[in-house]
């Protein structure tokens, strides 16, 4: 029996069970997610990912398990950029704290479908055209360059989806609890929360274009690519509430992400020349992540000169 025949159902049960508990118990009523709840769910998702990785090790071997872990770390690190964008989106649309969790949950559910389509398309392209791997590598190099050159914050109001939605859909000016749709004068209308969900979904779609090719640099096994990606995405909501207020403190993490993107991009571009062992890739990714976070904590940003002079 092929290992994937066993692991796919296990993956489905783990994800469906955890989401059912999360949605059915913790998301039944709108509430502000506490730090305690965010820590608990972050630990739950990490534990589930590691437990599943043990299953990968048992059924598919050490190499596959190392590939899963490397893919998981890449996606987890790239998620920090998602969190920064989510902070901007929620601030721009003035989304109350008690409704942010529900929006992120729906964003994650959409990501399960979209990323599955991306993985299937990527695997099919690589199977038919080997040269696509060089396209993926070039995309990652360019993405890293764009990330390091980015100086302006994205403007959610200029999102094309926002413009199209406002043009073709009828929106209310105020919220109706945590509803996405409501009735005004007997007519169905969308609330601003639906617009925020659309922005979150399109944001994830853009990030998927970067993150999924990065994992293909680690392995071309669609099962490993998808499951490692999804386990990282599933923990994004709790991670948001845990570190959203600390994102700006990790000022060197962006440079760490750039180095990781360039590393995996170069790995794809050099695939016909040199094969980098998965153990080396995992060590490089882990070292760069740990180093950039440690450097951010050891050398925090200094306040502007005006603030320093005001303090003195």
Give the averaged pLDDT, no decimals: 81
What is the succession of H and E elements? HHHHHHEEHHHHHH
Q: Radius of gyration over alpha carbons?
A: 21 Å
Low-confidence stretches: 305-309
Shape: globular
Overall domain count: 1
Q: Given the structure, what is the number of helices?
A: 12
The tally of beta strands, per DSSP, is: 2
Written account of the structure:
- This protein has one domain.
- The chain has helices spanning 3-26, 35-60, 62-92, 97-128, 132-149, 160-168, 192-216, 222-234, 236-243, 253-269, 278-298, 305-311; strands at residues 181-184, 187-190.
- Strand 1 and strand 2 form a beta hairpin.
- The chain has a two-stranded antiparallel ribbon with strand order 1-2.
- The N and C termini lie far apart (71 Å).
- 74% of the residues lie in helices and 3% in strands.
- It has 312 residues and is mainly α.
